[in-house]
Amino acid sequence: MAHLAIHDALNAIDPKYGQYVFRGSFKKANKIAAVSQAAYEVLIDAYPSRIDTISVLLKKWLDQVENGDGKEEGIRLGKMAARAIIKLRKGDGHEKQGDYTPMTKPGDYQYTPGWDNWVLKPDFNYARPFSLDTVVKFRAGPPPKLESSSYAKDYNEVKLYGRKNSTVRTEDETSIAHWWAEFAEHGWNRIGRITAKENQLSLMDTARMFALINMDIYDIYLASLESKYFYDTWRPYTAIRSTIEDGNPLTVADTGWEPEMLTPPWPEYPSAHAAVAAGGAEILTNVYGTSSVAFKMESTSALENHPSRFYPNLDSAALDCARSRILNGYHFRFSTDAGMQQGREIAKHILSNYLRPLGNY
Question: Is the model's pTM score more than 0.85?
Answer without folding.
Answer: yes
